[in-house]
Protein 1
Amino acid sequence: MADVGNGVSVEAEGLTKRFGDLVAVDGVSLRVRPGEFFGFLGPNGAGKSTTLKMLTGLLRPDAGWARILGEDVWADPVSAKRLLGVLPEESPLHERLTGWELLVFTGRVHGLPRDEVERRARALCDLMELAESDRHRLVVDYSTGMAKKVSLAAAMIHAPRVLFLDEPFNGIDALAGRAIRGALREAVARGVTIFFSSHILEVVEKLCTRIAIVAGGQVRAEGTMADLRALSGRADATLEDVFVQLLGAAPTEADLSWL
Amino acid sequence: MTHLLLLLRLRALLFVRAFSGRPGRAAAGIVALLFLGPGAAIAGVAVFAAVRSSPPARLEAFAIATASGTCLLFLLAGAAARPAGRLPLSRLLALPLAHRTLLGAGLLGGFLGLPGALAVPALAGLAAGLPPAGAGPVAIRAGIALLLLGHAVVLGGLFGLLMAFAMRSRVLREAVLVASPAFVIGLWLLPQLAGGAGGGAGLSSVLRWVGAVFPAAWAGRAMVSLPAGETAAALPFLAGFVPVTALLLWADVRLFARLAAAEVEGPRRRRGRAGPAPGPGPWTAALPAPAGVVAWREALLAAREPGYRLFRVQFLMLALLPIVALLVLGEGPARPAAGPAVCALLAFLALGKEWGLLSNLFGLEGRGLGLTLSLPVPRGRLLLGKAVAHGAIFTLVNVAIFGIVGAVTGAYRSALVGAAATEAGLLPLVGAGALVTAYLPFPMAARGRQALEQGGREPEDLGTGCLRSLAGQAAFLAALPAGGAVVAAALLGPGGVGLLAPRAAAAFAAACLAFAFAYGASAAALGLAIAGRALPRHEERLLEEAG
């Protein structure tokens, strides 16, 4: 695989974003290498989604920069977007297209020939266990899980070299989830970089080769699972243990004895 | 009983909250509550006072109209009430509440909303406006009024339940949305046609028919005849009215049970189509990639988005204008002369309507806006694809409208000139619309779906709203040379006023037409190119506006 970005797939330096007085992201710097399954964790309001939006060219940072495989996201957004696939958390889709039409549109916009788009769309729908009849229903009639599957397939159809996935397994059934995890692992083995954000710490621990934990808009810890365990001082610590230790568990003072 | 009171309290709270928020909405609420209701009561009193001395038939007619109107108020005002004023049934079903409590709260809740606020004063007006009488007749009237109110409540409930069933199906829901303007226009047009055909006879026969078969009208009739001592005349009406009301209540109970069961089952989902829809055809290759694919997708969205379909239905209904004009003009000498005026008016209206879409080319994206903006499409081509789709659909509708006008008025030449001038005028609007899309992004209906032809809610930023309005006027000024050149070609060209020699007229017309479309195309291309370059700087704001 050609190495475009000096051996770095996703690179960010000093990314900062303010919304009025609130500093949502405060000088985040990251380097993710090709073939890494990179976990991006944090509590609610930590700045994960804002960072993801800045990395994928949807939100312009107030300070700092981001590159995808060497392409500056904000200097040439179109070139950068060619290299990546994005699955946003809420899977916003065009409700009046069928799942199939959405995949065909996304593939064709990325410049794929029609036959190839259809071949890939079929393969992705099979992987996601999206029944033939469901593929040709309007997205507005989809369940949450089906919309998520189509959204994920749309993010993957052009075989991006960097995939940004925000809560990809929310609402997806166990069978499809297992198949998708397998496909993602295979893609990583072939050199695809996956930037993965989730609140399900067990899944992150199982899948990711490197993890960053953010809170208050800043990266608090970053490294492999072994690095994070070393940081926590416990060799048998789970990711949840590290997460809680690092960010501190909220004190439970409410009297719930009646429950 | 406690549950019922709790539910009614909640309903009243939601009704009050529906008016809170923006100052405009609060003002609308105050107008509705403080002025419309008492206004209806005063109008009722005044009308009855005016006809007291008239023959009994007239008094009876007014009683029938008021009683029927009260029931219609419950129906229509209940249907028009904002969803925030209703209680979500699926949530309530999870609570330990009996069906009869829920139904009772639903029916009585009508009094704690717009229907009650309007209908109760109107009914009080009916009772107060009738001729003065002793205590006995007044008590009889009050009793019948209460019966009538009960009837209105169960009838409104039945209507509401039927609507709730219809709203569970997306297809039915959208069909209602698209058909409603046709229904309203039909309501307005029918009396005009009936009046044209035979004066007011058609309308009064409809009223007589309503008075005979509409149960609420029977109560109105009884309210006039019973206190006047005409018991024999009133009893048949009351004898029919009470069982009909009981039957409606029974239907409410049964329907509510069915609706509750359906709510527990969950939302109804449509089955898939038999096979895949055709993908982007070879025609998409005629545009620089990937503008053709974007145009294909935009056309699909336009064909399926109910708000946009509604907009097109309204657009086609513009063609009704000349038909109404002809009804007014009849067969007199003014009829042939109406053609050019009607066509000019239509061209202006058509372009005005289209501007709403062109000035927000992202209006159809809805929740998919983020996905579209995350795609590696050069922005100029993204806008080009969208503009081509809208332009093509506009052309189809434009040809249909002017075709109808030509066929109805016989002014074929005016219709042809009108269609051509509209098409030429559209091109500069495309360029201007792309610029407004990029520089003045509009709040879009990502969550709500109202006013989709304008891209969504009203602009919250007054400055942007003013700028958009000014931009619209500037765009129409820019479109004038293109449309004007087509009109000049028609006036001074062959078949025109005959000011020029035939060859000179032909040359002049050709030059005018060439200028109109070359100028229009250049303006469109320039606007799209500038907007395409500017759009990346404004995408963040666009996403923010979309929520």
Protein 2
Amino acid sequence: MRPFTYERAASAEAAVAAVASRPGARFIAGGTNLLDLMKFQIETPAHLVDIRHLPLRGIEDLPDGGLRIGALATNTEVAAHPRVKREYGVLARAIVAGATGQLRNKATTAGNLLQRNRCPYFYETSLPCNKRQPGSGCSALGGVTRSLAVVGTSPHCIAQNPGDMAVALRVLDATVETVRPDGSQRRIAIGDFHLLPGDRPEIEHPLAPGELVTAVTLPRPPGGTHRYHKVRDRASYAFAIVSVAVVLQEDGTGRVAFGGVAPRPWRVEDAEALLPSGPAAVVAAAFQGATPTAGNAFKIPLAERALALVLSEGRA
Amino acid sequence: MARAQAAGTMGSVVVALTVNDERRRLDLDSRVTLLDALREHLHLTGTKKGCDHGHCGACTVLVNGVRINACLSLAAMHDGDVVTTIEGLGRPDRLHPVQAAFIAHDAFQCGYCTPGQICSAVAVLAEVEAGVPSHATGDLTAPVTLDTSELRERMSANICRCGAYSNIAEAVADVAGRS
Amino acid sequence: MHFDTSAGRNPIDAQTIVGRPHRRIDGALKVTGTAPYAYERHDAVADPTYGWIVGASIARGRVTRIDAAAARAAPGVLAVLTTLEYDAAPPGFRTTLTLFGGAEVRHYHQAVALVVAGTFEEARAAAHLLRIDYDSEPARCDLAAEAPKSEPIADRDGPDYPVVDRIGDVEAALAAAPVTLDESYGTPDQTHAMMEPHATTAAWRDGKLTIWTSAQVVSWHRNSLAQALGLAKEDLRLEAPFIGGGFGSKLIMRSDALLAALGAKAVGRPCKVALQRPLIANNGTRRAGTIQRIRLGADRDGRLTAIAHHSVNGNLPGAFAEAAVAPTRLIYAAPNRDLSMRLATLDLAEGNDMRAPGEAPGLMALEIAMDEMAERLGIDPVAFRIRNDTQVDPRRPQRRFSERHLIECLELGADRFGWARRNPVPGSVSDGRWLVGMGVAAGFRQNLLMPSGARVRLEQDGRLSVETDMTDIGTGSYTILAQTAAEMMGVPIEAVTVRLGDSDYPEAAGSGGQFGANNATSGLYAACTTLRATVAARLGFDVEDVVFADGMVTAGRRSAPLLDAAKDGPLTAEDRITYGDLDKEFVQATFGAQFAEVAVDRFTGEMRVRRMLAVIDAGRVLNPLTARSQVIGAMTMGVGSALMEALVVDTRHGFFINHDLGGYEVPVHADIPHLDVVFLDHPDPVSSPMKAKGIGEIGLCGAAAAVANAVHNATGIRVRDYPITLDKLLDRLPRVA
């Protein structure tokens, strides 16, 4: 871990200014991912701006019936929020399927959205990685790929987005709110928040330097049945091999997103329109153009079976 | 690489913590984790370093009453916080009920994950009380009851390679049943 | 005390304290975080320096240059030790590896430098400033690819060695058998994943070294380190009072100990080093993966006529083979037998001991094969195993087992587990979306005898002090030694103080190979026997007639307080147990029957163990509470072996890619249900005066196969390549829509 200076931000404006004005400055909130990466010197901030004490932690009702989740609300707080439990069950389910009680107490909503990938080669600092060292090459290609993405990848990166919460936010059509160094605010649809690797895998999100996520908003509750199923090798405390988030309506229509299979939560609206035709049709459409390896091709039939499971439970 | 060399003494922080009811003030390198502050600077070695990367749970402590991994937190981030470690829960001659239950149920072997298991268990009882759901929770909107699947899911953050899980679950259930 | 005839009645048989479920006497220290482990000796070392180990980033080749200038100039750095500046350290006991020194790299993450700084943070940061150049050679790291080039293992007799065993004519018997099986099985490389990393604090004073380290066998570590440093072993003191798990990883000295000693010497201050978790899998040792071929032949009644078991694994040149065929020598009868092993060269972390070496991976394969064979024969798998029990060493039929109650384990277990409810037709039991099955496997592990010493002192206040360099790696040594001394001397367990893990104490067996408990307590039994004689003499009793109970020494009608014997000063006795040839005359072994019920999600293939039972025959159980913990811990590890644990090699670069506790999954709470254990009560007088046998490993033997067989019973899918992960089931699960 490189030496760094540390400050506790007094306000969001000050935090944004501090990070925007200093090269190598970063926000830190929960820190559960950033600090880990700093230990490996995969992340090497020169200055940390601790935003944990900013008043961005609240969870409040929106006039349109939606919900505004402060960027610093912890995973635990979001999952335990009465409205989240009652009306956005898929979000509560996804959050508690992720990580552990300890990590969820620390991890924040914005930090979770911004967590970096868990490709083992990303962590293997003696080997090339286009996310770590742009242009150096992808060591995962031709390597051990069982956990990695099967769709949305590029010849430069096959890392998967490891999140659970983000998959639920995707089916809930969440919006990410930010404030930029110039004080302006913007809203980014969750579907635009995680970028596909293309030929620039090191660029993972659309945020500008110093741009701070302030909240995630949810539209009016979608109703229906909420399911999140996460498949992993052990029963807990593991990243998804495949996960599936579903909001299913009584007429058989609904929304579907997959986790663990792509560089971002994988929702294909045209594919979910096929829900009434059954899981095979949805998965065939959602994974069209997939480029799995021999080591992870099983994820596609697994995604179909996980969706079948969720649908069978939803109907039950 | 040059930056580290040139860094010199950049990045020291002063941290005031309340640890196990004692006010402590530390002058630290900003890189010091809460875990290393406890173990190396305060000599509270009951909190264990099993992996230093958030993969094992041995470093579990309570901060402001909530369990976290001390290895994935900077000490600097805890200025003003109240920290409880295993040493603050009980002593050999004055055991916390969870500590006593661990002995009664032989809920450990090598002892290295044990402080983390116990801190976690204490926190789990509070989380259930507070209605925090888990992956094992059936009806999200109903009050949480600590059945065995709930207990095992919530304790899954704490790895025990000696494999005392079956006994740990019974020790914690024993305490939960009494309270 | 030389033990060479079967034990008669002795003071342990009273079992007033031994054999009872006493709580751990060190429990209060462990649950309060006050038991000090190796890296935590602030009590002994006030101002340590911190070492950070740098691992090689190639699997095989040479270090050509290390530029340490930037690291040495970094803030707080006191020294950088590079492997090029040191001679290759001689390999320690039971290893072929040089832990540090010289240019040669033999495996990934081999230690090539140590950065020592005033703080942990400074050492870690400076380590990133090293520039290391290598000449890299292609690494051999794919067992399947290297197996054809493997060399046969010659026969070396002994309980811990692989055996080439050819009896009768296996080929003819297989050709003649009406029912046969010929299948291959794979077991993966595994890592111990003990919770406490390898760690050492080292301090030099006047040319003498003290280390606080995490060692399973004090004398092995001490001798290895002394040799590596060119130090007389008298000048090296080792303390290991608490050890955060080992499972074989800490049987032999590792780089943390050597580098802490070298680092402390280099900076002239104490130094502490913990092998960083991400280095352990590739820097440390592993359980070697195997490819096993098993052929079985049986008559229609289910009597085995032939057993052929072949195993190949890979290891570094000069390192030993994983004795996977070892249990097959002794577990089942069959007149025609062919057991063989081959060893290939792999440039991976050294294959070495991990809990139940040989037996664990061997039974993972053999006990699936037995399940498959039972199915082919149409015989219940419990009955099939019972039918093929042997009461003698099949190789030397005149050599009997001292005690062998495998049949009782199986029968009692079947009864307790509700085996009769098992549907023998695979894939036929459902519970909602879950397919449910039951599996059984037999367990077998040799009982190893090792000399072991202890000292016991009767203090003037009537308390007893026990001192031995025996270790407690979680096994309960503190408690069973206290029980032994209390039973022998007739005092309550609370009157006994046990001090362990110090090289100044008499040399004990140490912890490994499930030899610790029986041998260490027998060593203490020997010392107590001497002390009883001294006490009897002091009190004027004939030791032959005397009874030690309730703090009194009694012969006939005369009684005297034990305390009186020490009124002129403490009485000390030291002795060790050594063994004659009883283990040659009799096979000494431990047995188990493992039962598992597993549910498999018919959609996703996710597997959940619902129930598990082990019935164990391991001689006298010294403490049912701690023994049970040993067995449930081993069963838990067995669930891991069955369902998730595997080090995965990147064959291009020659290292295990999942080298941390996130990537290498071991079971968590949610994977493990309530586990049941039943101990049979068959003290073994041939084993030792304690009549106990090993308990630490038998619980792992067969556990994984029981789970594997339950998965098959649940689904009808037979997976022969561990671990049984859901991707291996997926294409054969029921169709879903």
